[in-house]
Design brief:
About 55% of the residues lie in helices and about 15% in strands. It is of the alpha+beta class.
């Protein structure tokens, strides 16, 4: 009986020893994965990454895995160049508006060269781009006097950062225009102005990071009409809660595994790479990444 007790006691102690090793290794693994963002190479979030996850989490995972395409579109080119002209005119308030127009027209040549050298010329609508470019002079003549009336521009394209206490990484964004009492974000559009949740989350984050009032400026431009429309974002707290909730969801998804392929598999997401939805376009590298990450 004593021999049996000694034998089984030894076996029991050995099992406890193995269990202890397993638990220690498990703890180490959890400790290593404590900052799941950093483990997957994500040093910070941004309003755009949060919005991307909200609208298309599969594409966000593909981008995290390193499959990205630089986006080019006539509307995006137009918006960026309008912002360039407005910023220049506000930094140099005594300059002539024609100077800003000239700078913007020159910038189009630079962008066209970039698109061609990047190999995107065959997919870029240069005809539509030319139509948008022709709207630059009147657009700037409308917008620049309005922005100059807002007073001194303190910080154009200003980097801001905010970190929630229980998120391991910060959120970083860039404000278009920061004044002493508010921040302003410029949106150019060719369709009827409608407040989008993406825009509201974006400027609400800027308000959170600066403690200033958030303003959305829509520059509505068509062939026959040009209008400047401002929206004061009042429900900032609601959108900040939304940002926090989405960020936590991003962290939760990445915590599925230390392997991004396993994360994609466990997410049960089914990416739509058909590009039938004009608002959710996938580039060639992103499609390649989706085929690798989400293969059945």
């Amino acid at each position: 009986v004593i021999e049996l007790l000694i034998k089984y006691s030894f076996n029991f102690m050995f099992i406890l020893f193995l269990y202890g090793i397993i638990m220690v290794e498990s703890y180490k693994g959890k400790k290593k994965m404590k900052n799941v963002f950093e483990h997957h190479g994500v040093a910070y979030l941004s309003p755009s990454s949060i919005n991307k996850f909200r609208s298309d989490p599969a594409k966000w995972l593909v981008n995290i895995a390193g499959y990205k395409d630089k986006a080019y579109s006539p509307a995006m080119t137009f918006g960026n160049i309008v912002e360039l002209g407005i910023t220049h005119a506000c930094i140099k308030p005594e300059s002539d508006i024609e100077e800003a127009i000239h700078i913007c027209m020159d910038r189009y040549e630079v962008v066209h060269k970039e698109i061609t050298e990047a190999g995107h010329a065959k997919d870029y609508d240069f005809y539509m781009c030319a139509k948008k470019q022709a709207q630059i002079p009147e657009t700037l003549r409308l917008a620049i006097p309005i922005y100059r009336k807002f007073g001194d521009l303190e910080k154009p394209q200003h980097k801001v950062e905010y970190k929630f206490d229980d998120l391991p990484i910060p959120i970083i964004g860039y404000i278009d225009m920061e004044y002493h009492d508010c921040i302003r974000d410029i949106k150019t559009t060719g369709t009827a102005v409608k407040e989008k949740s993406d825009h509201l989350r974006q400027v609400s984050f800027y308000s959170l990071a600066t403690g200033k009032i958030a303003m959305l400026d829509y520059i509505y431009v068509t062939q026959t009409k040009k209008e400047f429309i401002t929206r004061h974002v009042h429900d900032v707290e609601t959108h900040i809660k939304d940002i926090y909730r989405i960020a936590k969801k991003m962290m939760q998804m990445l915590s599925f595994s230390s392997d991004i392929h396993e994360v994609a598999r466990m997410s049960c997401l089914v990416p739509d790479t058909t590009n039938e939805n004009f608002m959710k376009q996938w580039g060639p590298q992103e499609i390649k990444g989706a085929q690798i990450l989400f293969k059945e």
